[in-house]
Amino acid sequence: MSRKQVQPLEILHQMEQDVLSADMSLPEEIVVAEQWVGLSYRVGKLQYVTAMDQISEVVPSVPYAVVPRTQSWLRGVANVRGQLLTVVDLQDFLGMDPVNVDQYSRLIVINNAQLSCCLLVSRLQGLRHFDPVADSCDTGDLGDQLADFVTGALGREKEKWLVFDTDRLVEKRGFLNAAA
After folding, report:
1. How is residue 108 annotated by DSSP?
2. Domain 36-176, what fold?
3. I want to staple 147 with a disulfide (CB 3.0 to 4.6 A). Which of 34, 49, 142, 164 is the partner?
């Protein structure tokens, strides 16, 4: 039996014909919803989330020097990586009991050009990813103190995080006037 020698060019031509005759279309374009990413933390009994672009870094609570004649929520000044930062007890500032500093307490360094500051929080809960449309929910009844800083709420599966805006916080006159 004699076998016919098939040339590589013929094979490629046949493959091209097969593809063209199959009339294959491109896959369907799937639109993926934009994700909103924020850092989640607990202040008192409420859960908060702050946009990542408003945060420089998070560090464990470090020793700080107390500043006399200031509001109780201004804990002092801390040296964080060679930078002096004002330490603000966010829980105390919002009218709750002061944070009991322990191994879980963290300092959230605010990303703001006008102010070198960090927020002392009792518990960090990590990064949260949300679909801003699907996960949007009602903030509920916020007190006057919170309403100035909360821009909305995001939630899923019976949990709700209040969106805390640090830019609004540093613009607040009461926050900038820490003298007692």
Report:
1. E
2. OB fold (Dihydrolipoamide Acetyltransferase, E2P) (2.40.50)
3. 142
